Amino acid sequence: MEIPKTMKAVRFRAGVSILDATVAEEVELPVPVAKGSDLLIKVEAVALNPVDTKVRPKAGAEDMVLGYDAAGQVAAVGAEALGFSVGDRVYYSGDVRRPGSNAEYQLVDSRLVGRAPESMDWAEAAALPLTSLTAWESLFDRLGIDPDGADAGKSILVIGGAGGVGSIGIQLAKHAGLRVVATASRPESASWCRSLGAEEVVDHSGDLEAEMASRGFAEVDFIANFNNTDAYWDTMGRLVAPQGKVVLIVEPTGELPMGGEFKRKSVTIVWEFMFTRSMFETEDLAQQGVILNRIAEAMDAGQLRSTMQEVAGEITAANVIRAHRQIQEGRTIGKRVLAGWSKG
Questions:
Q1: pLDDT score recorded for residue 298
Q2: How confident is the model at residue 77 (pLDDT cuts 50, 70, 90)?
Q3: Are residue 161 and residue 193 in the same domain, yes or no?
Q4: Pairing mode, if any, of strands 308-311 and 335-339?
Q5: Does residue 265 share a domain with residue 135?
Q6: Run of H or E residues at 287
Q7: Domain hosting residue 139, numbered range
Q8: What is the pTM of this model?
Q9: Measured between alpha carbons, how far is 31 from 131 in angstroms, rounded to an integer?
C-alpha cells in the first residue's frame, strides 16, 4: 500500500464554542510513522461518541484531532506489532491520549485493535468499537456476568437503552441469557430497544419504579446505567435487589450518598471507563483486541447487529461539527457515522 507524506485531518480549535462554524477546520498534516507496537491505519469510516464532545480542547490547550471509533485498513506495521499485516481490515477505539481518528491515517497500539466483522461495510464496523467495549466491560468485566450463559434468567435494567452503549448492551445481555428491561422515553427509541431484544421497555421520564413493578420487575439483579448517574441514584437504590450490582459510566455532577438502600442491601457499585486499559497501560491491555474479535465473530454469526443508525456524510469539518451538536442535544438513537473522504 502506497503511503502519502501528508494527510487530511479535522482539527478542533482550542477554546472555540461548538456553535461557532469555525470550531473545527480541515488541515493537512504529516502522515505518522508506525513504530514499536503501533499500526498505521488508513481510516475509512469513523463514528461519533459523547466522549468526543467532552474532550474538545479548552482555551489555552493545543488544537486537537479527535475521534475514538474507526474502521479501516492496516497501512503499515510497527516492528513489535504482532498478528497483523498490511491490508488487514480492522476496527478499534484507540487511546484518548493520542491524536484521534478524524484523520486519513492514524497510529494505534495493535493490542487495542480487532479484525473488523467480515459481514459489515466500513460504516457499520466503525459504529461498534467504543460502545461494544464499554458495554462488554460493563457487563462481563465489571458486573461479573458470564457472557456464555451461566447467569441466564437473571434480570438487568439498562438505563439509556437507545443510546450507543445501551444499544449494544441490550444485545450482549440478551445473548448472555438475561431478562432485559430497558429505559426509553420516545416511541421510536422504545421500538429500537425492543428490536434489539429488550423484554420490556419502560419510560424513564415518568415513575420508573411503578412502571417496573407493573411489568413484574419490582427489583432487578443488575443495573447498567448508561445515562445520568445523579438523576437515577435514589431510584437505583430502590430497584436493585439485595446483593445486586450496579455499573456506572457517567461521572456525577455532585456528591452522592453512598449509604441508604445501597448499604442496607450490600450492593456492589462499580465504574466502567473504556480508556482505563490504554491510559494506564494495564497488564491486560490486549484484552480489548480480544473483545473486539469476539464481537466481530458474534456479528458475523448473526448473534449481534450493528447499532449504526445513520451515515451522515463524508469525514469533513462541517459534518463532524454537526455530529457534535447533535450528540450534545442528547436525543440520538444508536450510532452516527461518517464514511469516506472528499476528493477535493
A1: 96
A2: very high
A3: yes
A4: parallel
A5: yes
A6: helix 287-300
A7: 131-271
A8: 0.94
A9: 27
Q: Which three cell numbers stand for residue 109?
A: 497500539
pLDDT tens digit sequence for 232-275: 999 999 999 999 999 999 999 988 888 899 999 999 999 999 99
| Among 86, 143, 133, 85, CA closest to 112 | 133
Q: How do residues 182-214 score in pLDDT, each as one tens digit? A: 999 889 999 999 999 999 999 977 789 999 999
Is 295 in contact with 289 (CB distance < 8 Å)? no
Domain count, the chain: 2
Q: How does residue 231 score in pLDDT terms, banded at 50, 70 and 90?
A: very high
146/228 same-domain check: yes
Cell match 479548552: residue?
Answer: 58
Whether 330 shows a pLDDT value over 80: the answer reads no
Same domain, 135 and 239: yes
**286-312 exposure pattern, b = at least 16 Cβ within 10 A, e = fewer:** bbbbebbebbbebbeeeebbbbbbbbb
Q: 61: how many CB neighbours lie within 10 A of its CB?
A: 12
* Cα–Cα distance, 241 to 234 (Å, whole number): 13
Q: Domain boundary at 271, 304, 321, which?
A: 271
Which residues does 18 contact at the CB level (< 8 Å), separation at least 6?
53, 56, 321, 324, 325, 328
In a domain, 344, yes or no: no
Is 279 within the bounds of a domain? Answer: no
Instruction: Report which DSSP code applies to 254.
Output: S
